[in-house]
Specification:
Number of domains: 3
Radius of gyration: 32 Å
Helix content: 25-40%
Order of helices and strands: HEEHHEEEEEEEEEHEEEEEHEHEH
Strand order of the largest sheet: 12-15-16-17-18
Largest sheet: 5 strands, mixed
Number of helices: 7
């Protein structure tokens, strides 16, 4: 049983990414538990949340671009109660709806032209010419269904799906379907987490203690999230940074958000690490606001610029 707790979506992102890294997996797949509920146990354990909340968070992170989802399976569910529990499948006659339907298999011997029920070949040869019966091109098999009540023959019976929970009967056309997804880290998130780990190792080598992520309480009482918080116990040196990775230049909104947070955490100042860099308008905006920005095309360049930034004495 889970104790449901509120969790910041970015904190959830970090915990789920840790699942990928710690489990050495590239994809989180769903499982069907004993009570027929679609679950993601690894994520549930990491977040301490029930399956329905986990799915909501995973889909929200997909919308934010942190993860990618792929259709894993499309399952039939009862149109009345939406239960996934395996539906009871039965067949009936499409003519009179009788359930007294049985299957017949006919076999035709191509060479001599004889055709009859497969049972007539029970002795292992064609009843007409004696040719040895086998599953080969010499013999053509066809299956039909026949209703014992109305006598009609048909290729395909009507299929009825009955819910074991509410006993609602449905045809294939009236069933409901639910899409179930697997989830993987997007390219941008993979690059971001890789850079964060590299920065963490680098700062540790310089004697910093690092929290990633970390929350800093502002004068307003609000807690602001940062991807990296590096500090030294006996030193005023502190590094607050957020990493942004995209497939296009980072826009002005990021600069505006950092500027707004800056007022609340003053005198601390945060740093933006942007891959593949800022848009021209965002760059001009950052210059006007005197924001700390590290622009880079890739991880190695970002690390090199961060080293120079620290060596030159960044603003705190």
């Amino acid at each position: 049983m889970y104790v449901v707790v509120a969790i910041d979506v970015y904190e959830a992102e970090q915990r789920i990414i840790d699942v990928f890294m710690n489990q050495s997996i590239s994809e989180i797949k769903p499982v069907l538990d004993k009570v027929q509920v679609i679950r993601y146990p690894l994520v549930e354990d990491a977040l301490g949340l029930p399956s329905i909340e986990v799915v909501n968070i995973l889909n929200q992170l997909c919308e934010l671009g942190s993860f990618q989802r792929k259709l894993y399976i499309r399952v039939a569910v009862c149109p009345k109660c939406s239960i996934i529990d395996p539906l009871l499948i039965s067949i009936s006659c499409p003519n009179c709806s009788s359930i007294n339907v049985f299957r017949k298999v006919f076999v035709k011997h191509v060479k001599c032209g004889y055709e009859g029920l497969e049972e007539s070949f029970s002795e292992g040869s064609c009843p007409k010419c004696g040719f040895k019966y086998s599953r080969s091109r010499e013999f053509i098999r066809r299956t039909v269904f026949e209703c014992s009540d109305c006598g009609k023959q048909f290729k395909t019976p009507s299929v009825v799906y009955t819910c074991k929970n509410c006993f609602t009967s449905s045809s294939i056309s009236s069933l409901s379907f639910m899409d179930v997804y697997s989830y993987s880290i997007s390219r941008q998130s993979f690059l971001k987490i890789t850079l964060i780990y590299r920065i963490k190792d680098f700062l540790n080598s310089l004697g910093y203690e690092v929290k990633a992520p970390s929350y800093v309480e502002g004068v307003s009482g609000l807690k602001h999230r940062f991807d990296i918080y590096g500090f030294k116990q006996n030193n005023s040196s502190k590094l607050l940074a957020n990493v942004y990775v995209s497939d296009k230049p980072i826009g002005e909104q990021v600069i505006m958000n950092v500027f707004a947070v800056g007022f609340d955490i003053y005198p601390l100042q945060s740093t933006i690490i942007a891959i593949p860099g800022l848009s021209e308008s965002a760059r001009q905006f950052s210059i006007t606001l005197k924001a700390n920005v590290i622009e880079a095309l890739n991880i190695e360049q970002a690390l090199e610029k961060l080293k120079n930034f620290i060596n030159q004495g960044f603003k705190q």
